[in-house]
Amino acid sequence: MTEAVPRYTAREAIDLVTSEFTELPGPASPVHVYPAEPAAPAAPAAPAREYGPDGPLSWQGYDASRARAAARTGEEESVVCGTATVGGTATVLISFEFGFLGGSLGERTGDRLEAACAYAREHRLPVVSLVATGGSRMQEGMRALVQLQRVARQSTLTREAGLPQIAVLRDPTTGGGWATLGAGADVVLALPGAQVGFAGSRVRPPDADPAAYTAEAQLGAGAVDAVVSPAELPGLLGLWLQLLSHPSAEPVPPPPALADTDLPATGWEAVGNARSPQRPRATAYLDAYLTRRAAISGDRCGGKDDGMLCGFGVLKDGKDGGRTVAYAAQTGTATRPAGYRTAARLIRLADRLRIPVLTLVDTPGAANDAEAERQGAGAAIAEVFGAVAAARTPLTTLLIGEGGSGGALALAAPDNTWATPDSYFSVIAPELAAAILKRPPEEVRATAHQLRIRPQDLVDLGVVRGIVEPAKSPS
Predict the structure, then answer these.
(1) Which of 169, 173, 172, 214 is nearest to 189 (CA)?
(2) HSE-up (13 A, CA, CB side) for residue 390
(3) With the CA atoms of 72, 75, 76 and 82 taken in that order, what torsion angle do they form, in degrees rounded to the nearest 10?
């Protein structure tokens, strides 16, 4: 499997995504301080000591290994850092050189990564990491492993600064590099067939399935957003950088209705309109409202739900045209726990980057089967409620079909939810309400009307702000 997957050098990986790269100067070699013996309070601090031969562990032959790696690759360390323009967006670019001691992280690697992230924050630039690493450098022992804490802190500081971080996983991406710069990025892309996993090929259990440690497997497990061919990578990476680099403080207007449907006369008619197979679904609304979309996929907890569409796009023509919008859209199915966690992830990311959010509500309710309970349905729904409640970026919601109980309400923006004429919102499905009230099946229709679930009822109750109309055709 591995032999068929290209292993790009650091410079080749850079060339895949940009022709405009300027390398940052390497940071000055820091003075490494070993713990001093305890001293009396008034005694002066012990002097710092530099590394002796063969690094902090005096690992025999380490200096020679570094010299051979430098001669073979032309690099001084396992990462190359610089500035670049990708798809028209200036960025800080980090590229790993796997040929340099397996792209491993040592203290000098940490120096470079820290300097690159600090430069990004100083100049307000996004960070793109082209990752190919086997993990931490054994010849530096724990001094190498603690670089993961250092890298994680830099990633956290960059996140807190409101700057996007995108990772591109090359072959292989394993160990601490995967668990920090890779899996910790806002958006994770991967090249086809790349080995991706915390365990490298030489430390896995002997009976481990190699197919589980691939980019494709990580995509299926919700840990990767997309597997992208090298030819498509520059365009998609450029699109992501553009989408995530344009904040906005104003809420987006709700999309117009796509069906010219009269308001229902009864509650049961509202249910029928919302459940009609001919009713426009989320994909139709996203296609009509947004252009140049890019999707995130997965909850980063081992799952994904195809019934929840999440990502970013650009508003089409109009006074708001050209603005970036984050979207989380239900597609009419019972939403799985992974779907709610993915939506929460989307809302938190948009909030951090100050990008307005549009949610499309359309579900008969949250999935309530035994497997959904085992996957933490309640906790997942709570995540979305919390993400919506905590969001400082403006949220807009459009109810486009069924609004089934708390599984629908979790995605609804307080005080900025709208409805289409072919939708309904209910505390519980009318059939279930009748069953709870011990009413016979023939009373389901009357129960639906009694619940006041029609769009016009929702306006009267103050649950939605208004009912959107179809877009007017240009005269």
Answers:
(1) 169
(2) 14
(3) -170
**224 exposed, middle or buried (CB, 10 Å; 0-12, 13-18, 19+)?**
buried
The torsion angles phi and psi of 353, rounded to 5 degrees, stand at -95, 0
CA 122 – CA 128 distance, rounded (Å)? 16
The terminus-to-terminus CA distance of the chain in angstroms comes to 59
Which residue type sits at 214?
T
What CA dihedral angle connects 115, 119, 122 and 124, to 10 degrees?
Answer: -140
State the Cα torsion 451-452-455-459 to the nearest 10°: -120
| Residue matched to tokens 């490494």 | 32
Q: Averaged over 238-263, what is the pLDDT?
A: 95
Q: What b/e string do you get for 231-268 counting C-beta neighbours within 10 Å, with b at 16 or more?
A: eebbebbbbbbbbbbbebeebbbbbebbeebeebeebb
pTM for this model (two decimals) = 0.91
Whether 354 and 249 have beta carbons less than 8 Å apart is answered as: yes
Kindly list the distances between the CA atom of residue 229 and the CA atoms of 194, 280, 293, 314, 317, in Å, as whole numbers in the listed order. Answer: 11, 32, 18, 23, 31
pLDDT digits (tens, 9 = 90+) for 241-252: 999 999 998 999
Sign of the CA dihedral running 110, 113, 117, 120: positive
Q: What Å distances lie between residue 422 and 25, 275, 290, 371, 411, CA to CA?
A: 60, 9, 21, 31, 18
Q: Residue 180 has what DSSP assignment?
A: I
Residue type, position 134, single letter: G
Q: What does the alpha-carbon distance between residue 457 and residue 425 come to, in Å, rounded to a whole number?
A: 9
CA dist 141 → 57, 106, 110 (Å)? 7, 9, 14
Closest C-alpha to 151, from 215, 96, 83, 76: 96
> Residue-wise over 269-300: b if at least 16 C-beta within 10 A, else e?
bbbbbbeeeebbbbeebbeebbeebbebbbbb
For residue 357, the one-letter residue type is V
Please give the structure tokens belonging to residue 314. Answer: 């650009």
Digit-coded pLDDT (tens) for 425-471: 999 999 999 999 999 999 999 999 999 999 999 999 999 999 999 98
pLDDT single digits (tens) 266-292? 999 999 999 999 999 999 999 999 999
How far apart CA 216 and CA 227 sit, in angstroms, is: 7
3-state secondary structure of 133: strand
Cα–Cα dist 410/429, whole Å: 16
Which one-letter DSSP state was computed for residue 6? Answer: -
